[in-house]
Amino acid sequence: MTQSSFYLDYFGLNERPFTLVPDPEFLYWSPQHRRAYAVLEFGVLSRAPITLLTGEIGSGKTTLLQNLLAQIDEDVTIGLVSNAQGNRGELLQWVLNALDVPIDADATYVQGFQKLQDFLITEYAQGRRVVLVFDEAQNISREGLEELRMLTNINSNKDELVQLILVGQPELRDMVRHPSMSQIAQRVSASFHLNRMDLETTQGYIGHRMKLAGGTGEEFTPEACHLIHDVTGGVPRLVNQICDFALLYCWSEESGKTVTACMVQSVVDDGVFFYQQRIEKEAQA
């Protein structure tokens, strides 16, 4: 079965509107996403030592980050590290790999740090800035965060040679706020936390993605959107998951091209929406 024979033709869509893969082209600029992006831009342009962006799983952090990286100036060298873990020295290796800085496998930590420092000084001499981006940074240990903080101490006169952007789930914000992490907290010059979408934003989000995919934006009834928001808690990735199934159910029933609350409820009742139980537990907590 080809994708075109799926529900796409039925709704007159050019592509699936609710995939789980982050796609900057489908970014919905809600007020808080605009503010979050402004903070990211400010962090880069103001040469903030550390910029912090946190939010729930699937809240759009990675999509915002991808949009930022696509727009960044050519005089900025970017090192992107995803899901970095490990102890002292291993994190430095992640950084060197992200910046394409070669180093011998048996090099000591001091030699690796010197390699990084030499690279940063060379980039600075050529009029370039270096920004290290850590996605899923909640996986970095407190010791690792402290090691990253030390990188921001590398400077030339009054200019810092490297900036950090830390992106992660809410526990990253909690880690940075811990009293034992006061030194790294003091280096955070720009920060933003993405909350879940409210009902109005959820409705706009669903309509926006349907329009971008070639639809009218009115395929989901207000009642369906309301139920989707209740079930997902307004987390974009979860909204994508249940909307994708709702379109599938609507197509399979061939009862019209409007997704109703009853169809959404059928998705929930059939248990194909795996996050439902977790959302209910969080709501009761």
From TrEMBL:
SMART domains: AAA
InterPro entries membership: AAA+_ATPase, AAA_22, ExeA_AAA_ATPase_DNA-bind, P-loop_NTPase
Residue intervals of the AAA+ ATPase domain: 47-190
Protein's name according to its UniProt entry: AAA family ATPase
Organism annotation: Sedimentitalea xiamensis
Lineage: Bacteria, Pseudomonadati, Pseudomonadota, Alphaproteobacteria, Rhodobacterales
